[in-house]
Amino acid sequence: MRDEIRQNGEPFLWAEGEEWTSIPMIFRNITGKNFTGKEYRDYIEYWILSHGFELGPVELWCDGRFVERGEIKLPGKEVYHV
After folding, report:
1. 77: in domain
2. Cα separations (Å) of 33 from 27, 28, 53, 64, 69?
3. What is the chain written as a DSSP string?
4. Would 82 be classed as within a structural domain?
5. pTM metric for this prediction
6. β-pair partners for 66
7. Could you report the per-residue pLDDT of 9-66, keeping only the tens digit for each?
8. Is residue 58, in this structure, part of any structural domain at all?
9. What domain range is 67 assigned to?
């Protein structure tokens, strides 16, 4: 089993085997489902962006199948999709 978080169509973060359960949790974290308010903003600013993610759309894929689309966002720093 391989889970991936993709950004701009490319796998950005992935895990296989025993580690795969962490990827859906990280996806929920970065799309604001597990954190809100200051906790979410701090998580995005100090961890996610510093590890190379960008504001904007992300996708969760499991075993080569699309599961869910979300967005990394910060209030006041909206990303406009063309």
Report:
1. no
2. 9, 5, 17, 23, 12
3. -EEEEEETTEEEEEEEGGGTTHHHHHHHHHTTSS--HHHHHHHIIIIIGGGT--SEEEEEEETTEEEEEEEE--TT------
4. no
5. 0.85
6. 61
7. 999 999 987 765 689 999 999 999 998 899 999 999 999 999 999 999 999 999 999 9
8. yes
9. 2-72
